[in-house]
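assembly run, all chains below
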Amino acid sequence: MIKITELEKIYRTEEVETIALNKLSIEVKDGEFVAVMGPSGCGKSTLLNILGLLDDPDKGSFIFNQIEVADFNERRRADLRKHNIGFVFQSFNLIDELTVFENVELPLIYTGVKSADRKKRVEEVLDKVQIMHRRNHYPQQLSGGQQQRVAVARAVVNKPKLILADEPTGNLDSHNGNDVMQLLTELNEQGTTIVMVTHSEHDAGYSHRIIRMLDGQTVTENILV
Amino acid sequence: MFRNYFRIALRNLRKNKIFSFINVFGLAVGLTCCMLIAAFLFDELSYDKYPEHANQIYRLGLQVTQNAGIADYPDVDVAVGAGVKNTYPEVLASTRINGWNDVFIHYQEKQFKEQHIAFCDSNFLQLFSIPLIEGDDKTALVAPNSIVISKAFAKKYFGDEKALGKALTIGRGTFKVTGIIDKVPDNTHFHYDAFVSMTSNNYAVTGHTWSNIGFYTYLLLNKEADPKKLEAKFPELISKYVVPEGARDMGISLAEAQKGVGSWHFYLMPITDIHLHSNTKYELDANSDIQYVYIFGALAVFILLLACVNFTNLSTASSAKRSREVGIRKVLGSVKDQLIFQFLTESVLLTCCAMLFALLFVYLLLPSFNHLSGKNISILFFLNYKAIIAAVGLIFFVGILAGIYPAFFLSSFQTISVLKGASSNTPAKRSRLRSGLVVFQFMISTALMIATIVVYQQLHFMQNKKLGYDKEQVLVLQDTYGLDSNQYSFKQKLLSDSRVINATISRDVPVGRAEGNMDGSEVYAKENKSNESASEIHANYFHVDLDYISTLGMKIIAGRNFSKDFHGDSTAVVINEAAVRDLGWKDNKTALDKTIISSGQHQYNVIGVVQDFNYASVKQKIAPVMMMLGRSSGTIMVKMKTADIPGFLADTKKEWNSYNARTPFSYYFLDDKFALLYKAEEKTGQIFTMFAGIALLIASLGLFGLVAFTTEQRTKEIGIRKVLGASINQVLVLLTKEFLLLVCVAFIISIPVTWWAMHNWLNNFAYRINISWWIFLVAGLLAMLIALMAISFLAIKAAVANPVNSLRTE
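ok done. output:
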């Protein structure tokens, strides 16, 4: 699914040069559930952004689904992203002005799914995350756990091959956090590849493999399964 | 997709109420102004375009170059039209019209004084495509003593009776109604309610002269004809017709006459240009000026721009609120183009809402607007398909104009940083563009305010200028020639009333003399006889009686007034200071006992000099005046002293009626007539006030909105500063300093621009104010004050807020 080789990303301001990724090489197979851990500033988020095609690397190769994407332009990246990748964020990032239903519907709109089809698929996935009864509520009217379930629903409604999760339980209590992890595990069992950045050893425990990073490089990999 | 944009746009509108209100209201006001002015401009530009062959019809005019400049006449002599038509085959038709003013028309018991009737040739109405709804287009105005009247005119005299075929008495003649028109279109350069056949005017039939004026003459050229080429041929007509006439009339040789008319020039003006480009003293109707079209057009665009600026400013200022949405949409696969499209959809939608309000405003304001502009625009003007298409076009134009910058700005947010929530906490970026736009808004507002003050100051100056006579409590009785020889006994009767201080019989009133009499007659001082063409001046004759000067409180500053004790006073004149100066005498004393010769070779003896008085608008310099004892009269002016004016009027009317006058009792007050002189300037003042107010309102709303967002964004900063010991005043200064600085800059930029523009405007007036520095200061302070009010409301709220609350929200 993912193969990155000697990837480099450097952030420059006028005075400071920060090496976020330093010749990083990682491979993730189809159907894997990988956790990425490391202290703040180790490059986890940069890695996730590049994997999510939100940012491009300065150097190195990034093969996604057997295609070299390191030099894709914005339009091609957006196109590949909307069909293949779902995102779950620590701060949920739901649009406040849209209802639960409309938030989840949004990716389908961008991939051009017909209205009737959209309704069916959104309801299906809302059912799956058990938030159907809240479909007409706005995000502010939901608890954090409920909001994250909506975010997960939105991430999977397009049936992506890859889900990228950035500390998905960071803003949740342990009970709600476990629910979300459970949900991700189920998705993984149904075949979705998951890459999750986390600080929590407990959450990392749900994954098959933990990649530990420091200063833009991998230091160790623990295979759990 | 579209539905989704639509939905989120509506919800954002609902959520940010201040933002939405400022934008929708501001844009609605801008659009309202724009639409009303557009309607006004369309009307102005539509003048005289309705005749079927409008593009082929030209008015024949005459320009004469003189010492004093070019005299421009929109009319020519009786025979010119037919002469031109018979000489040049490219002229398909010619037609003439001339006004017949101040006539009394009777039908049975009904009698009215009519100002709007005219003689015209039988083909006139056809050429101007004014159809008869009753009667025969071709023959109605052929026979002498025929009259074609408008529907309203018919109603006035005949009520519901059938008008066609009835007879009206005009003066001593009887005229048969041979046709009815609906009415002359509003957008025409002439407005008559009745047209009398030209054949009724004896002179028009038998006259064959070329060197006078008085007949407004129109030519229909064939499609291929080039008016410039035709014009170039006119000098040969002058040699052929005008020169021999001049030689005969003045008893000079042909060569001399040819020299004399060397400066004559017949010219053609397309009728479609008349309303906006012709501004001679003798127009059939007061025309407008293309300058106003430009000024109003510019004002409409400016007001609309101001409203667009609010949208741009508020959208970019509040961008932080939308940044997360942009980020999420990008993550979910939206590309920049789609986001730009989304934001443009939003601004177009907002403009759409504004348009709905604007239409409501237009509907409500149209009557006052018509009143102000003197137009008669119907709401239907805004409902025809062309106007609707234009309105939709306007929605898109304004929506895109206002939204294009915010759309690019918002859609270019970096996905990652906004999703990390970074940008919502960063301090408000001071956008140079936003500052520039605020400066622009306040510059326009301040400039309009300065202009308003200048206009009103000039108006006040004109209305209060020492006139050289006393206009208060002067009753003017019109058409007193109807009393015939009883005029004098009527005057005596009035003088015996204790409420009357004085009374005078004259032809001329000192306010707004009939425009036709304004050019004066050519006169020169006797000692310059050898050199008359160089020393000739134009003087206005005032036909007065012995009491004219005393009744009006004018002042003799040299010599004496007319007196019944002097027998020679029938050839005596009292002249004004301007006449003394222009005739070349070194002071008022010198002028006494001198002789003035008029073009008709009459000689007048100067017996006195009257102080200059303003007898026209102060726009014009006071021109030379020669007062002489009345050869013609028709007006009695009565200086009253009474608090009970209605009572006095009633008594005077009773008295009048007892004399069995041929004319009805009609009157006005001198000071009312005076007020009319400055109606145009008063309107200009009102219009400027309105626009200045609107501009300032929109700009202040925008400023209010901007402050709302900055204070919101700086809540935390303010909290921290207060915790660290900042006083409320220090916080206030922090929040207002920047905006006030912008208003200051706007003010400074507006000074030279307005000074220049208003200086030009004032050049239209012979007597004018100087633009003093305090006008700028007042306008600047006013702008500042209003800006401060807009700013301080929210700034104070933010400054006094308890920092505990603002910090806890983090």
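The first strand of chain A starts at residue 2 and ends at 12.

The longest helix of chain A spans residues 174-189.

not gonna interpret more than that til we talk
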